Amino acid sequence: MADYDAQAGREPRAGAGPSQRQRESDEIDYHEGLRGVAGIVAGAGSVTELLNKVAQFAVRAIPGVEGAGVALIDREGLPSIQTWSATAPFVNEIDLVQYRDLHEGPCLTCMHSLRPTISGSLGSDQRWPHFGGRVARMGVHSALSVPLIVDDRTLGAINAYAAHRDAFGEHAVQLACEFAGPAAVAVYHARLLADAHESTDRLQRALASRAVIDQAIGIIRSRSGVSGEEAFARLTRISQSENVKLHIVAERLVEEAVRRAQARRQ
C-alpha cells in the first residue's frame, strides 16, 4: 500500500480498485512515460523546458491525470515560479493561486511533509480552506502532489490534477511515486548543469570586467604617471561618487581613450 497524506475522512477511490485490464493499461502508459524521462538529455534545453517535458511525461505515466505541473524549490527554500512549468492553462492558473496568491495547497504540503499528498474533493478539504474552494470553483476536484527527492534533498514536486472527484487511487499514487524517482534525477542533473553554466558565465564576465579595469588603470597611469594603486583608487572614487559600477567607469574611460586615438589618426 502506498504511503501518502490523504484527505481526512475521504479515502481515494474507496472500494474496488482498477480492473486487471486497467492496471495493465496503466502500466504500459507508465513505462512509456518513464522511457520519456529516461531519454531527456540534460543541457539540451533550459531547465524550464525540461520541467515541461517531465510534466508531459507525468500526464502519461500517472493514471487519471488531466493536467500536471512541476515546481522547483529555490535557494531560499520556497517554490520558485521562475522554475516552474505546466502542461495546460488550468494547471498554470491553479499553481499561480497556490504559490502567489494563497500560499497554501497540496504542493506546499507535499514538500513540507516529504510525502505524497492527495485530495479527492478539494472543495471540502480542510487542509487548504482557501485554495480548495477556489480550485473547486474552477471545476477541478482532485489533486495529487509527489515530492522530487535526490539523496534526501527535496528539489520540488510534481503536481497532478483532474476534474472529477477521487481521481487518484492507491495505484495512481504508487506509479506517481515510482515515476518521481527518475524524474527527480533528471531535474537534478539539469539544474546542476544550468548552475555550472551560470557559474561559468559569471566567471567569464568577471574576467572581462577585470581586463577592462586593468586597461583603464593603464590609461590613467600613462596620463598621470601615478602608481597602479593610485590609478585604481581614482577609478574607485569615480565609481562611488557617480554610483556607477567600477567596470562601467572603466569601460567609459577605455572607450573615450579609443575615440581620442581614432580622432588623432583622422
Automatic annotation (TrEMBL):
Keywords of the record: Kinase, Transcription, Transcription regulation, Transferase
Gene Ontology MF term list: kinase activity; RNA binding
Chain positions covered by the region annotation Disordered: 1-27
Listed InterPro entries: ANTAR, CheY-like_superfamily, GAF, GAF-like_dom_sf, GAF_ANTAR, WH-like_DNA-bd_sf
Any coiled-coil regions, as ranges: none
ANTAR domain mapped to chain residues: 193-254
Pfam families: ANTAR, GAF_2
Protein name: Transcriptional regulator
Species the sequence originates in: Mycolicibacterium monacense
Lineage: Bacteria, Bacillati, Actinomycetota, Actinomycetes, Mycobacteriales
